[in-house]
Design brief:
Layout (H helix, E strand, L loop, with lengths): L9 E9 L13 H18 L25 H7 L4 E12 L8 E9 L5 E10 L6 E13 L4 E2 L4 H7 L1
Antiparallel strand pairs: 1-3, 2-5, 3-4, 4-5, 5-6
């Protein structure tokens, strides 16, 4: 089954990840599981840049420099990083493989969001080599649901997150 990235999406983040020698498998190309790590790294870096912290992270960490509009520095991180409150959970993830990534090189990750619902939004990312701009080697995505951790139930996306993904 192949998932398609929608036409209507919003570019929210871009980063470059170096391909490491250890990312390769016995076939001399980047191992399939590593593509999911690249997707995760991009998604987490975007969330941190947006002010969404994670467990064990200080509310005064550098990622808090980009707080959601209207939030006090550290407040969004506190909301998203404390298992006693609420935060994001990935409920599905996928990756479509088009071409083999090989060492050495750099992967340009472009992350998009779309389809905000009451409790969820979709994130998507494309992977291309820095030395071959515009050539998509892989594309993937994930469904994120906002969860009230103590209740173990979905809860409405916070306004600041809805603003980011709309």
């Amino acid at each position: 089954m192949k998932f398609e990235i929608p036409e209507q999406k919003k570019l929210v983040y871009q980063m470059t990840i170096p391909i490491r020698w250890g990312d390769m498998d016995a076939m001399n190309h980047v191992n399939n599981t590593t593509y999911f790590r690249y997707l995760e790294t991009c998604r987490i870096d975007w969330m941190r840049a947006a002010g969404c912290g994670f467990w064990g992270q200080s509310p005064n960490s550098p990622s808090q420099m980009a707080c959601p509009s209207g939030a006090t520095r550290g407040v969004a991180a506190k909301l998203a990083s404390d298992p006693k409150t609420q935060g994001p959970v990935i409920v599905n993830a996928f990756c479509n493989f088009y071409k083999q990534l090989e060492y050495p090189g750099d992967v340009v990750m472009k992350m998009y969001v779309s389809d905000p619902g009451r409790t969820t939004f979709e994130s998507w990312a494309t992977m291309e080599r820095a030395d071959q701009p515009g050539v998509i080697y892989a594309a993937g995505g994930a469904t994120t649901i906002w969860v009230d951790f103590p209740k173990q139930k979905a809860t409405t996306l916070p306004d600041w997150m809805r603003e980011l993904v709309s």
